[in-house]
Amino acid sequence: FYAVKNFTSPPNLEIQSPSTETVIKQDRVEVVGKTDEGASLKINDQTVYLDGNGNFRETVKLQPGLNNIELRATNRVKKENVKVIKILAEY
């Protein structure tokens, strides 16, 4: 049962930093987190490298004002988990 549930459910997507609705005083933010092994990840439609355990660390350029950073994890059967981080960049 666990293997079937794991196969048909979307991948886990955990964002360790930054927290959503954060104010940042610079033009870049480092997005750090973890998804399932074997999943693929895109941040704002850009493919992100995952290590062997599903961990990721990616620097994202911000525009002045409100930024929505979309993270999209997809597994082999095209199930998706999408999360959006809202960052206010004041620089």
Query: Low-confidence spans: pLDDT under 50, at least 5 residues?
Result: none
Radius of gyration: 14 Å
- Estimate percent helicity: under 10%
Fraction in beta strands: over 45%
- Strands in their spatial order, largest beta sheet: 2-8-7-4-5
Distance between the termini: 51 Å
Mean pLDDT: 93
Q: Report the biggest beta sheet as strand number plus sense, adding barrel if it closes.
A: 5 strands, mixed
Order of helices and strands: HEEEEEEEE
Shape: elongated
Structural class: mainly beta
Count of beta strands: 8
User: How many helical stretches?
Assistant: 1
Describe this structure in words.
This protein starts with a helix and ends with a strand. A hairpin with a 5-residue loop joins strand 7 and strand 8. The chain is elongated, with a radius of gyration of 14 Å. It has 1 helix and 8 strands, in the order αββββββββ. The strands form 2 sheets. The chain has a 5-stranded mixed β-sheet with strand order 2-8-7-4-5, with no helix packed on it. Strands 1-3-6 form a 3-stranded antiparallel β-sheet, with no helix packed on it.
Give descriptors for this structure:
mainly beta; 91 residues; 8% helix; 8 strands; single chain; three-stranded antiparallel beta sheet
